[in-house]
Amino acid sequence: MHIKKDNITFFGLLYSKDGVQPDPDKIKAIQALKAPQTCKQLQEFLGIATYMAPFIPNLSSHTAILRELMKKDAQFEWTDAQQKEFETIKELICRATTLAYFDPKKDTILQVDASLSGLGAALLQEDKPICFASRALTDTEKRYANIEREMLAVVYACEKFHTTQTEQHQGRHQGRSRTGCPNEIVVNGWPERQREVPQAIRKYWAYRDELSVEDGLIIKGDRIVIPKTMQKDILRKLHEAHQGITKCQLRAKASVFWHSINRDIEDMVKECHLCQEFGRSLPREPLQPQEIPTGPWQTVGTDIFTLYGEDYLVVVDYYSKYPIIRRLPKGNATSQTVITYLKQIFSEHGIPSKLISDNGSQYSSQLFTSFSHKWGFQHVTSSPLYPQSNGMAERFVQTIKKTLAKTLKDKQDVYLALLCIRTTPVDHQIPSPAELLFNRKIVQLLTDSNPQQQP
């Protein structure tokens, strides 16, 4: 222990009677740093800069170019622009301001500033800086009007410095808890060591390089990171159509994330009593090979099935696997009725080159043959010896029947269940049936209200 010293150093900072400033030895080490060669080295340098942020006005405006290299799909390319910003940051750190100690008896001034790229704030007493703060704007915030950005700067500054003055131990603990907010750590930088991360978000340490904040939401790639309080509701939405484990995980992969989401989905499906009740499937019969179409709506299959006394017509596109369902009038599953509904579907999606069906009476009638000739599509029926040659449609009949049965028994919205089937990726490499058919993403419960129109 040293008594009556003029100054002391602690955790990279120098404390004296005049205030606090970065340790000069640390400054020399930073000044000698070479340009980063990898994303990891750049992240370490930005972490150092973030630690020095309280001593540097508007630091975020000087790190924009370097932060671009940290984005998920960015290529690490070090040019003159990056080198110039790197040297500027080092120079700012070397000229870091000495901060005065906060005095609750003195008047305090909070200064804020908003530019087109970032927000800045300074806490002052007697014109001496107590602390600086800054952050970059998201793409959405950059489109705000000037007055909106200025108000955003006010809100940011008030939130940033809301724990500066405290007189009770309880307040200090609350302050530490709040500064452990995931959004704040993602925006301002993670600690250098995992053990320094608040316990509540330590599980995301492995994903820290992939996280960003947009419109107040934490994003991992294209997926929203869901807080603990909302995970049960999201699981329910993922399982709206009572799809299996793989399909639910594919839906999640397209839009939402938390660290244990795959395990939670697996547990949820295994515990679903309806999925267990309807889970047993008949052994698959061998399918006759079919020519694979090269584009959407060239070849479609159709079939009719009955569920709970109601007849349904199903049409499925062989390319995208997009299913269309129509409930037929009760007791009227005739050839003419099927033709009427097929005309409606073809008027919306176009006439396919080939229509595959079984040999049911609705499809083998002279009336249906006349319809195929008049509308100009090739009608192919499955062989009586091999009815499974219409396998795509018949397979979807089983999928749709199970989906409708579980949804109706669960008293859920049938149309939302169909939407889930249409918007779930086919597999890990192939997008959803809707995206394959329409060449765009369509809105569903787990996407925002304005998805990108191009896949």
Automatic annotation (TrEMBL):
InterPro entries: DNA/RNA_pol_sf, Integrase_cat-core, Integrase_H2C2, Retrovirus_Pol_polyprotein, Rev_trsase/Diguanyl_cyclase, RNaseH-like_sf, RNaseH_sf, RT_RNaseH_2. Residues 289-455 form the Integrase catalytic domain. GO terms for molecular function: nucleic acid binding. PROSITE patterns: INTEGRASE. It comes from the Eukaryota. One of its GO terms (biological process) is DNA integration. This is Integrase catalytic domain-containing protein. It comes from Stichopus japonicus.
